[in-house]
Amino acid sequence: MNRIDQLIDRLNGIEGLAFARDAWENKAPDDYGVVELTGQSEAVWADDAMAEQAYSLRITLYVRDGGEQWLGLVQQAMADCDLVYGLPERGYLYDINKVEWRWTARLYGPLEGEDDGTADD
After folding, report:
1. How far is residue 113's CA from residue 119's CA, in Å, rounded to a whole number?
2. Rounded-to-integer distance, Cα 34 and Cα 96, Å
3. Contact at 8 Å (CB) between 57 and 83?
4. 58 phi and psi angles, rounded to 5 deg
5. CA-CA distance, 88 to 90, in Å (whole number)?
6. Rounded CA gap, 118 and 121, in Å?
7. What percent of the chain clears pLDDT 70, i.e. is strictly above it?
8. pTM here?
9. Is the pLDDT of residue 96 over 60?
10. Which domains are present in the chain?
11. Which single residue of 4, 19, 39, 103 has CA 20 to 30 Å from 54?
12. What is the pLDDT of residue 44?
């Protein structure tokens, strides 16, 4: 399974939150988030070939309750998925009356999990 999808599954396990990849196709629920693959943050090259790379992710959460309880819940999900992340940014969005939390994270290794037994046909 794709490791970004695993992260989204883990985040969707947080009671009261719903996450999607990249954007919501339909109207988002009251408290929601988005996980975006934003690019490559690092690469290791050897013998003129990329040997390893790290991917940059942006995890954004929009909630009505601006309390800090969301920090631990979201960061635990990221830690469970072996992401390296920094302290989030926080701001208030007046147009939607929500607090925005935003993390930047790095995912090291392949995007597809090594124990993935399925193939896309």
Report:
1. 12
2. 16
3. yes
4. -120, 125
5. 6
6. 9
7. 79
8. 0.81
9. yes
10. 3-108 (3.30.2000.30)
11. 19
12. 55
